[in-house]
Amino acid sequence: MQDVYIIGIGIHPFGRTDGVSGLQQGANAARAAMADAGLEWPDMQFGFGGSDSAGNADTIVNELGLTGLPFINVKNGCATGGSALIGSWQAIASGAHDVGIAIGFDKHPRGAFNALPAEYSLPEWYGEAGFMVTTQFFAMKLQRYMALHGISPTSLGRVAEKAFRNAVHADHAWRRSPVDIDTILNAQMISDPLTKYMFCSPAEGGVALVLASAKKARELGRDQVRIKAAVVRTRPPGSFEVFAPCMDIERGGAPTLLASKAAYEMAGIGPQDIDLVQLQDTESGAEIMHMAENGFCGDGDQEEWLANGWTNIDGRLPVNTDGGCLACGEPIGASGLRQVYENALQLRGLGGGRQVPGKPRTAYSHVYGAPGISGVTILER
């Protein structure tokens, strides 16, 4: 396997962009990434791309050019973007190609996600009973975690407050105004214990990353950000994930535990070696739970971490430096790639007002999607 580098990054702002299709937002991001790499569409030897609600990703060739390149569609829940990146990484790491592009975009209708039971091998009654409403699942899973490990509502508020504070400095974020913790904690309750400021929103946006072999990256003078690990894992027996019809008495692991373990092994490092992190934060509790699942702290230790500001941009381990899903919103196809875009930007030292101090060398991204898929990517400068 040969080394793979991210040589170009591009993003279309997240949020709502009337009059611009999701496909066009993806093409906008692709053009920006190729320009960043000093390349053009005919230089791309392949593409991987994903979208959940904005059409087949391969139709982006109508926007970018009919060059005949192989383009693979990816649809893997919230892990779609991360999975597109992994496919692109494999295509170059295997030696099959020297340069290619991963693209993710979406344009979700306003309102909640409309997941259908049949798409997840579930009976219709599961949806009729309201169990397909993800806000309810997240809240139920979080309540159990809080009770077991002593997590307070204040910690949920601190996660959201940090997200909106970080997003002030992120041009691509949707929600860029700070929100104080009292407002967050006393806002309308959506699903106890989560208030409206503790949830992300379906959104629009596009992200693209140009990847290249070490040889190609050196030729272009772009061998700065290397992919040390890229893995995706599905759920093991006994895990309790989105749209699970029940909880097993005999508890098992979780897809994130499997993905993080595999990523650390592939990279040859551990959580103590990571300088900054992007974690899936579909809601405030998800970031808290994923801190432990990815090995950055023990269950329950998040109380101390958040109270001491250790996940702030200037803290011990900065988490979700651009505001994460809470502030950026979640266009499913693009969200996982946004995390890697942010990490690459940070490793280049181009984070501006949200730049992590001290010249970070390693960056970790984690994405999680229904019905239990996790992807982890580790970058190194």
Automatic annotation (TrEMBL):
Which SUPFAM superfamilies does the protein's record reference? Thiolase-like
**Entry-linked Pfam families:** Thiolase_C_1
Give a GO molecular function annotation for the protein: acetyl-CoA C-acyltransferase activity
Give the Thiolase C-terminal domain ranges.
259-377
Which residues does UniProt assign to the signal peptide? none
Full protein name: Thiolase family protein
